[in-house]
Design goal:
The protein is α/β, with parallel strands linked by helices and about 425 residues long. It has 8 helices and 26 strands. Bound molecules: adenosine monophosphate and magnesium ion. The site of magnesium ion (MG) has 6 residues, from loops.
Amino acid sequence: MSRADSSPTLPSPALPSYDQAATLVARYAAELRRARPASERVELGKASGRVLARPLCADRDQPPFPRSTRDGFACRAVEASKHKFLNVAGSSHAGQAPAGQLPKGAAWEIMTGAPVPAGADAIVMVEHVETVEQQVRLLPPRTLKAGENVVLQGAQAHEGDELLLAGTAIHAAQIALAATCGYATLEVFVRPRVAILTTGDELVPIESSPGPGQIRNSNAPMLAALVSAAGAEPWILPTAADTAEALDAALAEALKADLLLISGGVSAGKFDLVEPALARIGARFHFTGVRIQPGKPLVFGDLPRSHPGNNQNQNGPKCCFFGHPGNPVSTAVTFLLFAAPIVAALAGSLEHGPRFVLARLAADTDKHGKPGLTRFLPASCTFGSTDGQLPEVELVPWQGSGDLAALARSNCFLVVPEEAHALQAGAIVRILLT
Ligand code: AMP
Ligand code: MG
């Protein structure tokens, strides 16, 4: 088995900070976003997780008629506020066509969702009236203002309005809006195909009983889940052994993808052969490490898709790649921080970057972090605060970047800035949402 020939354009050793690397990736994602992906039509019920390829427009006014938001009586607010009895001239419930003109000095019984009769300008709630036979009056001392409990026709949208932009990610609310506007199908962007190439002589498939020194390949299914959640189609390639030949063959196949995620083989060890293999097929490296922990050896670059060899067209179509360090926590963090924004851009989504929010730290952190590295530590955040306080976050005890159980018990990562050696209980901190 040959070791890689490390002669081609290997990267410079100066490592960017987290912010520098994130800015570089964001710029790259913005470039990718200019090339619109192809689109396809899907049934509305299958559109969750996809991205709109065309704006979604209102097919009629929303609401389509002045709509009552309460059960009660439609009336003129000025008349009702005099507390005199009003004749109940009729009744409407949701689903009925709009009633005619409301006679002067009258009220109209109405249910939530029903059209408000012309001439009425407010709804008095059923709980706020006194009823005597066919007459009602607003109970003093309450008064009623024009517009109360009525949503005017077109208040939410007018026919033809663009309600959602192309590039909007589709979830439950967007599906409901599409349904209300009469879209039984939606035009969505074709999902990018993301190749997942795990490398390592130690890896065996899930079904296998690992032999001495072997472990199961958990990064392939984890990356596949992350890729799906980010809006792309995962394509798991066979695991490549730690040899130049195996990597060359696997990379040649992987180039058919829109994005390539490689796991393992990017650290400084004797069997970390991924970077030289990428360099052999003409890789351009944007960075080959970031000042973060875990995940410092992360590699980002792109490859020409043209036939490998010396006469590659550097301006031709590119396949960008990430080389993720193989330890599972490193793989997960570097995907969320850097690969997810590229997946989103390739998917045509307008959503940007990783999601950070502020939280309050429950307990002091240890002082063992390496200076000069931004740390992303598995943590657990409680979001259900009802007292107006920030969510509270605490570290999940972990044994380093191989600790999958800690990762699986976490729901975010605590960000420890590179200048901070430790953080104190009560501090307002940033967390990365997973
Ligand atoms: P590497 O980045 O190739 O040096 O891998 C570092 C460590 O990560 C390995 O020693 C394994 O323990 C672990 N590892 C690498 N690849 C995987 C994988 N696909 N699934 C689970 N663990 C992995
Ligand atoms: Mg390895």
